[in-house]
Amino acid sequence: MEQTLSIIKPDAVAKGVIGKILDRFESNGLKIAAMKKVQLSRQDAEAFYAVHAARPFFNDLVDFMVSGPVVITVLEGENAILKNRDLMGATNPKEAAPGTIRADFAENIDANAVHGSDSAENAAIEIAFFFSGREIS
Ligand code: RTP
Ligand code: MG
């Protein structure tokens, strides 16, 4: 079974749609293998999104990710990485397909409700960044 890392971002937590987003995962065959609610530090957010450090949007992204608590989960299932990306929809909610999490709950390209790992390599790195082995089951 494949695993992927999901983050319910500060905009969605503030809106009170944690449960609705978790239901999308569970209703579509993704098991919640680990979960926690966390206020990220600047250092956490900068390290987590280090791949984007050179991008013009990096500072805005970090500011946004520390603007309030997030809910971090490990999702598990067949093709979990791709399945989660499909459920999320496009990065820009204006381009996200109807019925996707971002189409239904995101505000804009910065406050876009969820993060999901984009490859098996990054999923492994991101899961290890937030969870120890004994927190995943
Ligand atoms: P994520 O990593 O959060 O799951 O989002 P993603 O794969 O769909 O998009 P990615 O390219 O990895 O970008 C990470 C986050 O940076 C913000 N972003 N802003 N202003 C812009 O052009 C821009 N591009 C990306 C988004 O909030 C995106 O989720
Ligand atoms: Mg990404």
TrEMBL record:
Cofactor(s) it depends on: Mg(2+)
Entry keywords, A to Z: ATP-binding, Cytoplasm, Kinase, Magnesium, Metal-binding, Nucleotide metabolism, Nucleotide-binding, Phosphoprotein, Transferase
Active-site residues, Swiss-Prot/TrEMBL: H115
Signal peptide: none
Keyword Chloroplast: no
GO CC, alphabetical: cytoplasm
Domain of life: Bacteria
Residues of the Nucleoside diphosphate kinase-like domain: 1-137
Main location: cytoplasm
Residues annotated to bind ATP: K9, F57, R85, T91, R102, N112
Catalytic activity: a ribonucleoside 5'-diphosphate + ATP = a ribonucleoside 5'-triphosphate + ADP; a 2'-deoxyribonucleoside 5'-diphosphate + ATP = a 2'-deoxyribonucleoside 5'-triphosphate + ADP
GO function term, MF aspect, one: ATP binding
Entries under PROSITE patterns matching the protein: NDPK_LIKE
Compartments it resides in: Cytoplasm
Enzyme Commission number: 2.7.4.6
Keyword Cytoplasm on entry: yes
Binding partners and assembly: Homotetramer.
NCBIfam families, per database record: PRK00668.1 (NF001908)
UniProt-listed PANTHER family: NUCLEOSIDE DIPHOSPHATE KINASE (PTHR46161), NUCLEOSIDE DIPHOSPHATE KINASE DDB_G0292928-RELATED (PTHR46161:SF3)
Family affiliation: Belongs to the NDK family.
HAMAP family noted in UniProt: NDP_kinase
Primary role: Major role in the synthesis of nucleoside triphosphates other than ATP. The ATP gamma phosphate is transferred to the NDP beta phosphate via a ping-pong mechanism, using a phosphorylated active-site intermediate.
Protein name (record): Nucleoside diphosphate kinase
Organism for this UniProt entry: Sulfuricurvum kujiense (strain ATCC BAA-921 / DSM 16994 / JCM 11577 / YK-1)
Gene name per UniProt: ndk
